[in-house]
Amino acid sequence: MIRIRWSAILALSTSLILLLYTSIVWTDEANSAGSLLALAMAFMFPIGLTLVAWSAMPPDRADNAATLAPLALSLALIGYLALGFGLHFGGAAFVSDDQELEALSRFLSLVRGDESAGWGFAGLEGFFLSGDAATRAAVQLFVSQLPLVTAITLVVMLALPRHMPLMAQALAGLVASALTYPLAGHWVSGGGWLARLGDTLGLGHGLVDYMGASVFVVGGATALAAALIFGRRQEALAPDETAAMPPTQYPLLASLGALLAAVGWIALGLANPLYAPTDTALNWPLVALNGLAGLGGGALSAQLYIWFTTGRFDPLMGPRGALAGLIALSAGAPFMPTWAALLVGAVAGLLLPLAIYSARRALRLDDAAVTLAAYGLSGFWGLLAVALFADGRWGQGWNDVAGLAGQGVSGLLLAPQADGGQLGAQVWGGVALFALGFLLPWGVFKLLAGLLGLGARLKRRLASSPSSESQGAPGGLDGVVDVDNGE
User: Fold this and answer.
1) CATH (domain of 252)
2) 141, 140, 171: which is closest to 72 by C-alpha?
């Protein structure tokens, strides 16, 4: 066994912090090496998610899970390049003043078919980053999204039941990178209908999601759809099994993964070129501090809950709670005070073990990565937290909405003038994103399950044919996996 020393972990963490500090200083320079450094460091986020998920895998799944990370990056790149980027940012010219994005000026509207309606559904330009769309700004925008696309692709693939063949996992990842993530991204950050709810229906600033909490709502919904289609755990859990926490194979790597995800999370915002003109509406040090506060609050509350219920700390629940808190702050980190960010992260960490227990006991989900509990629920809670704790100091003009008396993004509890419409935008947005993440993959998985079931039935017929029996092949159903029942 390879020994991992604390000194090596400390040196690696210190180096990452120094690199992140350097990227923050340099990112103010347009097209500088600092912005490229931020883009590179943003990939720490999916790497961190991989380590935390992998350290929780049982030995019989760990090898397969280790191969999924590079596969997820490949599928994310292919799917997002071919179709996803165009669906996501095909109308980027209407949300950015950058002249290099002027070619991205067409999208499908739900109402009138043009951009003036404010009901954009999907972009229609920029596929394969070809032609006039292949500008420096467009490529930078593409690369800035790739870490998040990789993360959601990996989350979806890890959430699938263990009996799923690799090709089915790859198809699920490709659907996430080419369809569900881009459509959700267009609705939220590409000028789509959820972002425009402030203009069309007067609901606050429209759906506010700083950095992708909605992505994890979609991922959690996809995990639920996969579990319902391909079968849940058929056996009932014994009482002692539900009381015991799942074993941790590599606890040190889980803690390292949480730290890497935090570094990558901060770099994700710095790498996004759409936020460059909004420096006056964002306080970058506050964003970083609130993200770390959410991480700390989630790790602390999750561990305290486990200590209170089992009498000991769990080496995996802390990193998972940290990720849950970090994801919960992905929506509202720039818009709330730090004490509120700590509270939001703590609530996410407290919900995590309860959701894991419910998923295992009631739903019987075969989800070793706890995607629905750790990511989907935390993302939905993060969207709601914006409408509760945003204090109105930051985010003026977000989604092209002036706000109440010039306030920024405003919630119900802390803003000088409470904005009840913001709660409506966050709730309806979360429901719509969950529906997208559930219904679209449901149809794909249903078709895939039918094809796999057809293949299994053909295999049974061949096995029971007279020619097979003469050659000693089994004539019954023993040993045949029924995909429809998930056995």
Assistant:
1) 1.10.3430.10
2) 171
